[in-house]
Amino acid sequence: MNKNTLYKLQLTTILYNKANEITDLGLMNGKMGLSIFFSHLAQETNNEEYQNFAEELLEEICGAINLASFDFESGIPGIGWGLEYLLQNNLIKVDAEDVFKEFDVMVLEYLLLDINLKTNTLDKLIGYGVYFLKRIQNKKYASNNEDVVKNKQNLICIIDELDKSTKNTFELVNEPLSWNLRWSLPILIWFLSELYLLDVFSVKVEKILKRITEEINTRTDYPKLHCNRLFLKWSVSKLSQDCTNLITLKNTLDEVVNYIDREKIKIELPQNDFTFQMGTSGIAWIYIELYKIKDIDIYKEEANYWSTVTSKIADTSEFIDFIETKKKPYGLLTGLAGVGFITLIDRGITKLQPK
Description:
It is a single chain. Mean pLDDT is 89; it is low at 349-355. This protein has 17 helices and no strands. The protein is mainly alpha-helical.
């Protein structure tokens, strides 16, 4: 058994044994993320025990759903996104129609409540939006399906609110001082680009994206951090030259991110951080996503490199130190489930075909 297999076995054992101690139900730092990891692991290993464990975690989540919050990281929007992810990737086979109808109503109620109370922050709006986006991306349903139509209307409401929330593009475009997968700008650009490609209120979406582009064009040496350049590159990766109305945005971002240096990224990342949010797993994930969209050798090489770096870090004493010192050491965003997820999807990168 090689070192990489030993490390993954250690990681899996820790997550399996610690799952009962995790009180967070959510996608990013809780049991939903663990369910996704073990579902992928079951598919990779053909191990029924892992599949049963993933389904047990889902049952626990659904049994305590009334205790969940309404933020994307730990609450119902993220849990709903995770459930749709499992279904759309054929990782589970359940009839979740009734569950999603309840989720749709609850998420909409909290969206409208936030709007009325003026507590609809940019991060909240994007979280609600990403949930409804995942719902309409389910190819099982026709475009005129009642739930699809309703959720497109919910997305139009969110787009209207995003238009109001992004008037101050100066602050929105400001670059964070360190790499963080929670940087709102690339996530917002990606979200709006996905909506544009699905022709959901594309006129308003185009308006917001052009406003952002104009602000980016006023900056020099932007972004400074090479990991942030990579993140922005991912945000428009699905926009092709055929999207003529958004060609200025794509060309602008292609220009500002045209030089990304691996050595610079290595310096910019926190030492021995292998997490999704601020470390090597997040960099590996971006390159994997870029390769899935466009079959370019450098994306594949970089994905393999950063996944290998992650494995090597997790095979050292810092691995145990990380577990003992972090507040949320087991989830997807800041913990071991994210590391395991990256190693699993990277194993199949040579089989991936561009979409």
